[in-house]
Amino acid sequence: FLMQTSEMLQKICVRNLVRKYCRGLSAERKVQLQQKVVTSAVFSGKKEGYLESLSQPFLETRLKENDLNPKVLQLIRGENIKYVTPVVKYDRNGFKARERLLVLTQSSAYVVEMAKIKQKIEYSTLKGISTSNLSDGIVVIHVPEDNKQKGDVILQCEHIFETVTKLCILANKQSVVKVVKGSLRFRVGSGKEGTMVFTVGPEPQVFKDKTGQLTVV
């Protein structure tokens, strides 16, 4: 009986300490923890670099709304901008690297070039988000096969854990994130598909190999 009482008191004590800790959290700290929980669910034990990312707090955004071109702001007016980060976008055919911005609003993801919106993906239509199990920063945003979309979006992000976490939380599609090994398929457009191969090498690089595949080292 004394053992049972002791165990009950310990549980009550722990519960009170947790409640006290949670009540003392700032709103910013609470958001951080909520985001890190999602990151853990998506990447823990699956992608290299995850453990090192634990001590790095996520920023609210990497670029501010004021950093966006006024023409872009005009085009997405009425939407609440939540997160902006520089990315490298790889063309779906020749795989040429192009500097872009990824803009996440409350309802859509935009790939932006200076004053132009190159692609818009509404979260309601987003089919999947893929990354590799290695330490690269590649993420593929999978879109539906329709006339509105040119094909899947291939991006390289410096802050991969932060960017993917923000995207899947805003889209409310944590379950569609996949961490793949070896290779993945992506849609080029017009019913065509491409292949991306992930491998390990002495230095990071992304290139089109002799077979026409995009190789990520």
TrEMBL record:
Family matches, as InterPro entries: Myosin_TH1
Domain TH1: 47-217
Entries under Pfam families matching the protein: Myosin_TH1 (PF06017)
GO molecular function, one term: cytoskeletal motor activity
Superkingdom: Eukaryota
Gene Ontology cellular component terms for the protein in this record: myosin complex
Protein name (database record): MYO1H protein
Source species: Agelaius phoeniceus (Red-winged blackbird)
